[in-house]
Amino acid sequence: MDLSQKGAGGMIAVFLAQWRHDRRSPALILIFMAISIAAMLLFSSNMSGQLEYAAFPDRGVSHDEAKQRVARMNDSGHLTFKLTNEEKALRDVREGQTPLAVRLMQDEEFRIVATKEGIHQSMVSEHMHRIASEDGRLAHAASLVGSGNTVRTNFESFMTSPPVHKVVLRPDGRAMAGNEMSIQLLLGFTLFLAMFTIGYKINAVMNEKALGIWNRVILSPVTKTGMYMGHLCYSLIIGLIHMITVLFVFVFAFGYDLGNQYGLMLFIMVLYSAAIVSLSMLLAGIVRTPEQFQMLLPVILPIMPLLAGIYFPPGLMTNKLLLIAGEFLPITHAVNALKQLALYDAGWSDIFMPVAKLALIGVICMGIGINLVERRKA
């Protein structure tokens, strides 16, 4: 038997040993799958209800003027505002019943009242600035013709039936989706929890080396390469099964539309699993014991979706340091590629850059990780 046959046989033996172990006690894998589904259902149920923000007039702003402004605020986007009095609005913010309130001031100015910073302030601020910009252009046009009400009335009438109406469709004729946060969160949670599944399977390498099992097995026909390949391939496949199972449940049980590019999506998930296996090997090489690895994993992994912007709409994160840090994370490029496939029916050329970055991260982490694991003394 030559070395290649010996290595392949050893890899299969290690792979099957891991499979038999998980078949007897699959609790850990099933728990992470259940958490993925539960977390997505929880967030989607919160998103399904339309959040209503309070708005109240400042001194010098009449009730009728505030009512007109709130009507424009509700007609100019997907956010909902309710006109109320100042005392009630401030009390609701203080008691946590609403994340913020908008103070309507003179000359189309506004102030956001909130107890803490968060995503809601950024969304409302962007919304209000867009309305103020539109009002500013209308006011400038009114100053040129000398009749503000006429300009606004004519503009609103014109926009109800514009001469040109653009409709953007997918290649298969369906309506083009925007950035649906439900799809982004589904992909993000699925890939995020798959990192835990893969990471804890990689920790089996650490356990076996710490217990001296590798030293005994390597004396058998199983080579060190076969040991590594058996563990890494098994971890990759388990992570892939995790992601496919969760997405399958949401597509066929809850009616989520992920497009029809299933072949490319499967390829991205395989590449992502390989990149997470490599990243886990790098983390395993940094620490010294399996216990340290188990402590490091819950600390490092939850930070990654935040840096990748999974929980925020695109464009909301503007900090350059966070954006640069996100570029070094596999989940950033995997979610980006999968989202393009799900929402826009993207082709191979459209996802080439995320795929290339994903592959590069995997190769670098694997090379450094295995080197560190081998250099460290058991």
From TrEMBL:
One of its GO terms (molecular function) is ABC-type transporter activity. Its main location: membrane. It is found in: Cell membrane. It comes from the Bacteria. Keywords: Cell membrane, Membrane, Transmembrane, Transmembrane helix, Transport. The keyword Secreted does not apply. The chain crosses the membrane at residues 27-44, 181-200, 232-256, 262-283, 295-312, 351-373. One of its GO terms (cellular component) is plasma membrane. This is ABC transporter permease. It comes from Paenibacillus paeoniae.
